[in-house]
Amino acid sequence: MPTNAERLASMPLCQVAISATHLLRTHYWYRRALGFRAAGDLRHRESEGHAPVSDVPESSFDVWCLVGRQDWFQIEMFEFQKPRMRMIPADWRPSDFGYSTLGLHVSDFERTLERLMRTSGRLLSEPLGSLGQRRVCLRDPEGILLELMEEDLRQPGTPGPVNGEVPPAIRSVTVSVPNLDRAYRFWVETLGLIEAAGITLHSAEHEGLWGLDCAKRRSLLLWAGDILIELVQYAEPMGRQRPAGYLMTDQGILNVALGSRDKEVFDHMYDSARAAGYRFNSEPWTVPGVATVVYLNDDQGFSVELLHVEPGGMARMGFVATPDYDAPRSE
Fold first, then answer.
1. Which region holds residue 132: left if phi is over 0, alpha if psi is between -120 and 50, else beta?
2. Which of 128, 132, 273, 281 could form a disulfide with 55 if both were Cys (CB 3.0 to 4.6 A apart)?
3. For the CA atoms of the chain, what is the radius of gyration?
4. Residues 232-281: pLDDT tens digits?
């Protein structure tokens, strides 16, 4: 059993948030091509509550959720009406600063490739690696880079899947950062993530999967629950800043969430980040009996959500698959 200090030290990664230009199409593609399960939908028109949390004025959006094999994890997919998002730049590279890549373990690698061929998946290369360790990269309908992995990289001792019949599980999030040392202070010293000793997520040969064959980089690999956070500082090609005027509503991965079902853990993490001098967009926003949320910003322009969900709020917050789901009509 973990000590109280260990319990308070970190929160697992429980969410990846995506800003989609066509929510109905992209949500359906993740279900049909990759095998995720729908987990409900919410609508926030002219949301006064969300605007200060996200620091986005006049916030209006739809948000639908997806779950995979893991307990306590979701993909949260937004389509913003206000402000309208801008597209991923046509010359975007994985070395450019931001949340760049999602790594997915799929339990049916061959069948997943077949489904991708039927659903317009754009593979960037042929699969790399020997049987049981193959990798392949593609872009989803929004242009977000996905890496499919045959091997299931999991932190030893973490619980097994709760939805064993569902093929995909998110196993990694790659972040291209301007300064790796400052990222270490934020993710390890403040948020309490654990270095993934003895694990190699990517080597030089993998850079070719996403078009950076001769890349030079430093990286740091961390466990956030059973998901890896890969922090990368590229020396060649040099990372580029986000476009002027960037908002988190712009198309792509907008942030990730660290979560706990223990309010004391949430409060401890909030106090630790505030004491370390990092900026929050607002005070924590609470929906009584459901959840508490706050958005935190590091000193390099990255947003991280801290989330506490009450036991009775899991389904409402989109962490439970919706039986016999029929996608809501687009308006």
1. left
2. 281
3. 19
4. 999 999 999 999 999 999 999 999 999 999 999 999 999 999 999 999 99
List the one residue out of 89, 104, 92, 120 whose CA is nearest residue 212.
92
pLDDT number for residue 45:
55
What domains can you pick out in the chain, each with its CATH number?
4-313 (3.10.180.10)
CA–CA separation, 147 and 97 (whole Å): 18
For residues 172 and 194, the answer to whether their CB atoms sit within 8 Å is: no
- 241-246 CB contacts, 8 Å cutoff, 24+ apart: 241/96, 241/97, 242/96, 242/97, 242/98, 242/301, 243/86, 243/89
Do residues 12 and 224 lie in contact, with contact meaning Cβ atoms separated by under 8 Å? yes
Q: Kindly state the percentage of the chain with pLDDT values over 90.
A: 75
**Which residues is 82 bridged to in the sheet?**
60
| Mode of pairing for the β-strands spanning 37-44 and 135-139 | unpaired
Burial bucket for residue 83 (CB in 10 Å: 0-12, 13-18, 19+): middle
C-alpha 183/C-alpha 195 separation (Å) is 13
